[in-house]
Amino acid sequence: MLVRTKHFGEVELDEDKIIIFDQGILGFTDCKKYAIIYDNESGERPDITWLQNIEEPALAIPIISPFLICPDYNPTVEDELLSSLGEITPENLVVLVSVTVPSDVSKISANLRAPFVINADTKKGCQVIVENSDYEIKYYFYEKLKAIKAEKGGK
Question: How many C-beta atoms lie closer than 10 Å to residue 58's C-beta?
Fold first, then answer.
């Protein structure tokens, strides 16, 4: 199917790439269909990708794996909040967090308090508020991302 996106124009997307958020996401409860997209001209998936809404092209949220920037990330979430996703296993669990990129890129931050949780098998997702009060809404990670890029041999 052809999907209009905020950053990549129209892209061809397989139906099986669509993730359904039955409750929507924070601030966008009516927007339920999303896909994870990125520019793959380089051939590899970048650290930061986009959670692109299928129904509303202007709704695209930069996302990153929290484990990349906070390796010991282990949020506490009530099981009932995840029950609509189907059986969650370590193999099908995908956890992503939203990223805010201000004009001063050194102030880039991730919201560790409200992750997106996705069951890769059922293609169902939800956004939850974690119970751990030690996880920040604005977790600044510029230096960590720089170190990761240096390890990979990037700039």
Answer: 8
User: For the chain, which domains are there?
Assistant: 2-152 (2.30.290.10)
71 φψ region: left (φ > 0), alpha (ψ -120 to 50), beta (else): alpha
User: Do 72 and 86 meet the contact criterion of CB atoms below 8 Å apart?
Assistant: no
Q: Kindly report the three-state secondary structure assignment for every residue of the chain.
A: CEEEECCCEEEECCHHHCEEECCCECCECCCCEEEEECCCCCCCCCCCEEEEECCCCCCEEEEECHHHHCCCCCCCCCHHHHHHHCCCCCCCEEEEEEEECCCCHHHCEECCCCCEEEECCCCEEEECCCCCCCCCCCEECHHHHHHHHHHHCCC
Q: What is the pLDDT of residues 55-100, one digit of tens each?
A: 999 999 999 999 999 999 999 888 888 889 999 999 999 999 999 9
63 within 8 A of 95, measured Cβ to Cβ? no
How many Å apart are CA 74 and CA 69, to the nearest integer? 12
